[in-house]
Every structure is written in C-alpha cells, then in structure tokens.
Design brief:
The complex is a heterodimer of chains A (about 300) and B (about 450). Chain A has about 300 residues and is mainly α. Chain A is built from 16 helices and two strands. In chain A, α4 packs parallel to α5, α4 crosses α14 and α6 crosses α9. Chain B contains 18 helices and 13 strands. The chains are: A mainly alpha (about 300), B alpha/beta (about 450). At the A-B interface, α2 and α14 of A face α1, α3, α10 and α17 of B.
C-alpha cells in the first residue's frame, strides 16, 4: 500500500504520466503507420495477404516516368508556392499592422475567410471559373477584352495559374495571421530608436522587421514546404479527378492515390510515400540547417 | 493532502481527455451520409454499402417486397451511402484487412478490376444467377466475372451505347439523320450540317477525357484492347486507329469540336449541348437521366438511334459504365445474400423498379418486348424522347448488336493514359495517331 502510494506520488513518474497522452498518440497515430508503411513498401499487398518482394517496388519506381512527372510537379508547386506565400502575406501583414490602414479588423476577416471554406468546394468553384466553355467566368472576362476562349485547364501554364491562384486565395490569410502575430512580438522601441537614427520606412522594414520576423518565416517556410509537397486535393478538385491532361496536375500524393487506391497496389503506393517522406525530410532539414534553427538552440543550451 | 488529490484529478482528467480525443478523431472521419435499416429484427441481418442514395432506396423497396413474398426467409438490411471514392476505399481496406467489410456492396465498373484477381475476396454468384442467366444480356454478366468465368457481380443496367440526335436542329436545316448507317454517312451529314449552319453547329464532339468512342470502335470490330480475360493488352488496334484518324479528320474539317471539359457527361459539355452547339453524340442509355435531370426543357427535341458502324453487319453497341453488386467473403450467410441480391436485381419485380425508379435499361431481355413493362407512358423516358428507348434496345437485341468490352486489371492503366495523355495529344495537338498509340503501348507494356 505504502509502496503503491509512493509510486503514485513519485516525482520521477509524474512527468511521464503527463506526457503519456502525447507519447501514446505519437506511437499509435504516427510511429505505427510509419513503420507499417515502410515495411509494406517492400511487400506485395493483396487481398490474400502480404508477400516479401524486397526492393522490387523501388527498382520499378526508378524507371517510372509518371513518378518523375509527379515529383517534378510537386517540387515545382512547392517552389512556386514558397515564392508567393512568403512575401505576399508578409507585406499584407505589415499593411494590416500599419497605423495608416483603416478598418484593419475587417480586412483581416476578409483575408481569412477563404481558409474556412472546404478545399472541395473551392476547388470545384475554381474548376467552373476556369472552365473551357464560353460561359466559364474567365472566358467571359476574356470575351470582354475581345480575346478568344481558352482551354484553361488543358495546358500547364494556364492550368497552374488556376492551381496557384487557388492556393494564394485560400492560404494568404492564414500565413498573414502568422506574420501579424510575429509583428506584434517585435518591440516598438526598436522602431522608435530607428526613427531617432533617421531610418526611413524601407530601412526600418529591411533592417528591423524582416530579421525579427525570421522565426515566423522559418515556421511558414517549413509548413509551406510540406504542404506544397503533399498537395493533392486542390489538383484533384480542379481537374475533377486524379487524371489531368498530360498529367500536368499529377502530384506525388496524387500518384500514391492512383497506385494505392485506383490500381490497388498498396505496396507500390507505400514506396511512393516513403520517397515523398525522404524528399520532404531532406528539404526541411536542409532548410532548417540553412536558417540556423538548430545552431540557435545549441547556443541557448550552452 | 488536498494538493495531492488535485494532482491525481488532473492526471486522471488528462488520461480521460486522451480517450475522448481519440473518440473525437473517430467521429470526425466522414461518415456515411445516410444509414437506414429496413426489415424485421428477426430476419437475417446484412450490411449493404452503396455510393448512390437512389440505389439504396431501390434496395430498400426490394427488401420489403422480398419479405412479403418470402415469410420463411426474412431479411433485414442496414443500408449505408458513402461518397464514391470513400466507399471504394473503405471497401478495399476492409477486404484487405479481413474484417469490417459489408455483406453486400455496390462496386463501380471502373473499380471492379481490383477485385477479379486470383485472390478475389468476393463470393461466387454463378449459381445464384443461374435462374436468370438465360435472358440476361451476356455481355453485362461477363464484365463482372473472373477470368475463369465465375460470376461475382450482379449488373444493374446494360448502359447500351446509342446515338443521341438533336432532331430539332436537323429539322431546322432540313437534314435527314435517320438514314445514317455508317460512319461515312455520318461524316457526309457533318459536311452538310457545317455548310447549312455556316459552321455554327458541329455534328458532334469528340472526347479527350473518356474512351467511350474507342470502346464503340472496338465493339464494332470485335476487338478489345485489354485482350479480354486471358489475352495480352494491345492498344494499337485497327479499330482504335480508324476511329482516332476519323476524329482527327472531323476536327480538321470543322465537323466536330472537342468535348468541353473532356467528355459529354460534364457540366461544361451539358452547357454546350444546351446551347445547341453539337447536334448529336454517342453515349450510353443512362445518359437519358442526365437529360431528365439537367435538361428538362429539351424534352421532345431529342431522338435516339443505334450508332453508325464502319462496315455493314458489325455490332453497333456495347455496355458502357455500370455498377456490379457483390457479396463479400465476410458475409456469414452468403447463400441467402446472393439469393436476395440476384432476385432484387434480375427478377421482374426488380427490373420494374430499375426501369421506372432509376430509369436504366434493364439487363433482363425477357422484359424488353413486354408492352406493358417497356412502353408504359407513365415512365418519363417514354415521352421525353422522340422514340421509346426500348424500341432502340429491341433493335439492338434483334441484331445481336451489343458487343463486350472487358474491364480487366490493365484497364485503369490504359484508360488513364488515354484520358490524360494520348487523346489530348491526338485530338488537341493533332499528333500522329500511330506514333501516340506506340507510346501508349510502351506504357502499358511497362505495367505488365
């Protein structure tokens, strides 16, 4: 009894009890699927069971030209979204926090509302807007300028316009809020001292705002890298399914879905997923190293 | 002491909150949009999944009628309707995992190849279908069979491929579409229409996002790019080349346009049809329901005939699309499930509901020529079109003109490559047909 009581009030055990929920959910919902996914990528998965086939899936992947298209598309999408989704929200956030802007709350809400819509609905709307029919919104606009109707979603340039526009429309508000939070954390006395030293608006932005927003930028880039690489639903909705003309909308996750679900080859799909994980980890790791996130922690630890 | 209790309480609440968070996570996954149970509690219980709400309404009717007719074999069925993708995913996962699958399930034909391999997780239905097999359309039973001929799915409809004509347009320009028998006639009619309408109206629209035209060509020549249940896949077929070359010529000569949004069963293309931009198009019988649902004002304008052929005497139709209903190997009472299912979908009572409630061309030919069954004016399709649909079906039946185009494990690969790449390159970019088909064949060979 005494022993049990001791155990219950032990200062050594208590912390573990408190982190238990997180550890359990990590094990059940993260580690278990991860390990099973990696093992399944070496197996042929059928209704009958699983059979080991070694690295056959990876060998096939190496020569799979659709997988290459998918990887290139995903990386390109990630790169383009980074180019759009870091500077635009940052500038908007600065605008939102500027004293010169009127009705800031209203703008913030308007910017944020698209993030609350479902991708399915917004993707559907963008598909209808960019329809190649003469009644599609974009083609009506083209007609107003006396230009012929376009088959927007059939070529990569115009199709990706729709895809990126959807991304910007949906996520600008979210990233902007991260930056607004980041801006609020910057001490106003820094700007005051800048004023005293005679810095103009651009200099204050360049030498105070941007450097001090770095933690936010690192965070935004990290999640954008992963969101960009794992994009699937947007493309799925815009092209009304997983098949886009000449595979311009095929992404890594789209290919995983195609193999695992549409073609019932879970083993191969898992191999695709493992490669996706490796790519995402490599990019994120490199980026975190480059931005000095790791070294920062070390310094603090010392 | 109080503090200690507080700590314990906190710890306990955290553990409990973990439990609820798991429960919430489960609740948040998208559930079925509708769950209903029909039939008496003492009846044998089955689970049935579908991705179409109307199908489940139909099955529910059939449960009630079955229980009235078979007091000794009562059934009770719980129906769940899931979105298309989600239902097929869940079904596949549960069959792979070995538990959690329904007893009876609808499977869309495009998904069916996943289940026809040697490790097929479905209950064989050959015996249960035997009483109806003589009068059922053979081609439709074959597509839901394993390579060895074991039937594993019960068809819903024929989906006979036919030609839809906007008769009002042809009348306006004084052109006769009824005498069209071959594709040459069809092309000639297109030239006339182009001239009469000043190029405003196209004869038809060709698909870059669907392979129906190719299937029609294959059915006409009796070819099959999947190679059938035990052949080698080959997309470089004469029939396919002929069809694509002809379509390229149509596009070059301004007779045809490319289907808006890829194929005729899209919002974009329905708008094109409503605008009167295309005067005819081939599609399965089930497209009638699209007319009824999306284009009610077009009633009386449209006619249906059999499709043109390349050479006289060829078959001119095939069964397009469809849903096969299966009994899974996780069913505890598969004999009864199979008996009920085949009765529901193949018997006279079932066929009546399929035609009148769902508006499909039924698979049991025994009723096609039944005046009272097929030509009753209370069925909207008998008054919407300028012809009674079953008249066209009976023409097809008399000439034995419905061919089989198989859906096999290679079908998803072929269809995917055709719809994403090959058809776009040939029809949009005007690339050489033979060249593109060679590239398609390379892709198919890599998958084999």
């Amino acid at each position: 009894m005494n022993k049990a009581k001791k155990l219950l009030y032990s200062q050594k055990i208590a912390p573990y009890v408190f982190v238990l929920p997180f550890i359990l959910s990590l094990l059940i919902f993260w580690l278990y699927p991860l390990v099973t996914g990696i093992t399944m990528s070496f197996q042929d998965v059928t209704f009958g069971g699983k059979a080991w086939i070694g690295t056959a899936h990876y060998a096939k992947l190496a020569g799979d030209k659709f997988f290459k298209i998918a990887v290139l598309n995903s990386v390109e999408y990630m790169a383009l979204t980074l180019l759009l989704m870091v500077p635009i929200p940052m500038l908007l956030a600065v605008l939102m926090e500027s004293r010169l802007t009127k009705a800031r709350g209203v703008w913030k809400v308007i910017m944020y509302v698209p993030a609350l819509t479902s991708v399915v609905i917004s993707g559907l709307l963008f598909r209808l807007m960019f329809s190649e029919g003469v009644n599609g919104q974009m083609n009506v606009i083209m007609a107003a300028f006396g230009k012929p109707a376009q088959a927007w979603l059939k070529s990569k340039g115009t199709g990706w316009c729709a895809l990126l526009l959807l991304c910007v429309w949906r996520w600008t508000g979210v990233n902007m809020l991260y930056y607004v939070a980041g801006l609020k954390a910057i001490d106003t006395s820094l700007y005051e001292s800048g004023d005293i030293d005679g810095a103009n608006g651009w200099q204050k932005f360049r030498y105070i705002t941007i450097p001090l927003l770095k933690p936010t930028t690192v965070y935004v880039i990290t999640i954008s890298v992963f969101a960009g690489l794992s994009m699937f639903l947007e493309s799925f909705m815009i092209w009304n399914g997983n098949s886009s003309p000449k595979n311009i909308g095929l992404t890594i996750v789209g290919y995983l879905y195609k193999r695992g679900i549409e073609k019932n080859d879970m083993g191969y799909a898992c191999a695709v997923g493992v490669i996706l994980m490796v790519i995402a980890l490599a990019i994120n790791f490199a980026q975190l190293l480059a931005t000095g996130t790791f070294s920062l922690k070390k310094k603090k630890g010392e | 002491m109080k503090k200690k209790w507080l700590t314990m309480l906190l710890a306990a609440s955290m553990v409990a909150s973990m439990g609820t968070s798991v429960a919430f996570a489960e609740e948040e996954t998208e559930g079925p949009s509708a769950v209903t149970t029909v039939g008496p509690d003492e009846g044998t219980h089955f689970e049935l999944w579908s991705f179409v709400d109307l199908h489940n309404n139909f099955y529910a009717n059939m449960v009630n009628e079955w229980n009235e007719a078979n007091p000794d074999k009562q059934v009770q069925i719980t129906f769940s309707t899931y979105p298309y993708g989600e239902m097929h995913n869940k079904l596949m996962m549960s069959l792979q995992a070995g538990s959690g699958a329904p007893d009876i399930c609808d499977i869309e034909i495009g998904q069916f190849p996943n289940y026809i391999g040697d490790d097929c997780p479905l209950y064989p239905l050959t015996d249960a279908m035997a009483p109806y097999a003589d009068t059922m359309v053979e081609a439709r039973m074959n597509v839901y069979s394993k390579a060895d001929g074991t039937r594993i799915g019960v068809p819903t409809h024929v989906g006979a491929f036919v030609m839809y004509w906007n008769a009002a347009i042809f009348e306006e320009y004084g052109l006769d579409y009824k005498s069209v028998k071959t594709w040459d006639d069809y092309t000639a009619l297109g030239e006339q229409l182009k001239e009469a309408s000043n190029g405003e109206v196209f004869l038809t629209s060709v698909d870059t996002g669907g392979v129906d035209w190719m299937s029609l060509a294959m059915a006409e020549y009796g070819e099959d790019w999947t190679g059938g249940p035990d052949g080698e896949p080959n997309v470089q077929l004469d029939s396919v080349q002929k069809m694509l070359t002809m379509q390229q010529e149509w596009l070059n000569n301004g007779i045809a346009m490319i289907s808006t949004d890829g194929h005729t069963d899209t919002d974009g293309c329905r708008a094109t049809i409503l605008d009167g931009k295309i005067a005819s198009f081939p599609k399965a019988m089930w497209y009638m329901s699209r007319f009824k649902d999306y284009m009610p004002d077009e009633a009386g304008k449209w006619d249906i005939t059999t499709c043109p052929v390349f050479e006289d005497g060829q078959k001119c139709s095939f069964g397009a699309g469809g849903t096969g209903t299966v009994v899974t190997n996780q069913c505890e009472n598969p004999e009864l499930a199979a008996e009920w299912l085949t009765w529901a979908k193949c018997s006279e009572a079932g066929q009546r509901h399929i035609w009148n409630d769902l508006g499909f061309d039924v698979c049991n030919t025994a009723f096609w020529s039944d005046e009272e069954f097929a030509y009753d004016e209370s069925n909207i399709y008998n008054t919407y079109f300028r012809v009674k649909p079953y008249e066209v079906l009976n023409q097809l039946a008399e000439a034995d003109a419905i061919g089989t185009v198989y859906t096999t494990t290679i079908s998803p690969t072929i269809n995917d490559y055709m719809c994403t790449t090959a058809l776009n390159e040939i029809l949009e970019d005007g690339r050489d047909v033979a060249e593109v088909l060679q590239e398609a064949q390379d892709v198919v060979d890599m998958e084999m």
